[in-house]
Design brief:
It is a single chain. The chain has one domain. The chain contains nine helices and no strands. The termini are far apart. The longest helix has 33 residues. With 254 residues, it is an all-alpha fold. 78% of the residues lie in helices and 0% in strands.
């Protein structure tokens, strides 16, 4: 295979027109995976996992709260990754992928804050405290909202992509601050229950439920982002002949 053919294969799916049908095929697959994992995860979390000896039943919020918090941080890092690719290689699809991920990341961030407040009331005696972990997580929500507002406010696609990418890359600094906040500062928030360097501090069945829910959130994020990026591609490429044909086909199907 020649060098030119290898380069063509490498960048082929970076074109929105080439990625559009691939996203259409993968999105329902990940949607089904997310549905199955969510069903299994909820069954483990709320029916198989035992009652916690200290917190009682209220601890079950962890099966929603922790995966949501993980995904809120992970999605922003993925957005920063796509933003860096877009700036370095000037690919339109990279910016569209970041824009497609943002609403889902913001949703998970809000869920993490909301469930954290519900968990905090019986354990801390307050729905909210200006704790380092909570405050930096709230800042992450503002970064998501600010990113979405910024890209919606700029009409020129190239300026929009560049401005959004810069905000993502700068805002990504907040993610390690969220993660290490419980180590760097004296906070009310408990430390990590799962670590790569030590054994988990929870029962295996509890850990299983939390991890299955985390994988469900991951599959859901991919599915929704793929569905959303198809819409963004059609909007971005609306003047192209292939988009007109696709819109006509969708109109006939409806």
């Amino acid at each position: 295979m020649s060098t030119s053919e290898s380069r063509f294969n490498l960048y082929h799916y970076a074109a929105p027109q080439a990625f559009y049908p691939v996203a259409g095929k993968l999105a329902p697959v990940f949607a089904v995976i997310a549905l199955v994992l969510t069903t299994v995860g909820l069954w483990i979390s709320f029916f198989k996992a035992p009652t916690d000896a200290v917190q009682g039943e209220v601890y079950r919020i962890i099966f929603i709260h922790v995966p949501a918090a993980w995904m809120s941080m992970f999605v922003f890092l993925v957005m920063a990754f796509w933003s860096a690719i877009g700036l370095a290689m000037n690919t339109r699809l990279s910016a569209l992928m970041a824009q497609a991920l943002a609403p889902t990341g913001a949703m998970f961030c809000f869920v993490a804050l909301w469930t954290g407040a519900l968990w905090g009331r019986p354990t801390w005696g307050a729905y909210w405290v200006w704790d380092a972990r909570l405050t930096s997580q709230l800042l992450l929500l503002f970064l998501y909202l600010g990113y979405m507002a910024l890209v919606a406010a700029i009409d020129d696609p190239r300026r929009r992509d560049k401005a959004g990418a810069i905000l993502c890359l700068v805002g990504a600094v907040n993610v390690p601050i969220i993660y290490f906040s419980v180590k760097w500062w004296n906070t009310l928030h408990q430390g990590a229950s799962v670590s790569l360097t030590k054994a988990p501090s929870m029962a295996t069945i509890m850990l299983s439920g939390m991890l299955v829910m985390a994988f469900a959130a991951w599959a859901y994020t991919i599915a929704v982002a793929l569905y959303r990026v198809r819409v963004l591609i059609l909007e971005r490429e609306r003047h192209a002949d292939w988009v007109r044909g696709e819109l006509a086909r969708l109109g006939e199907a409806n």
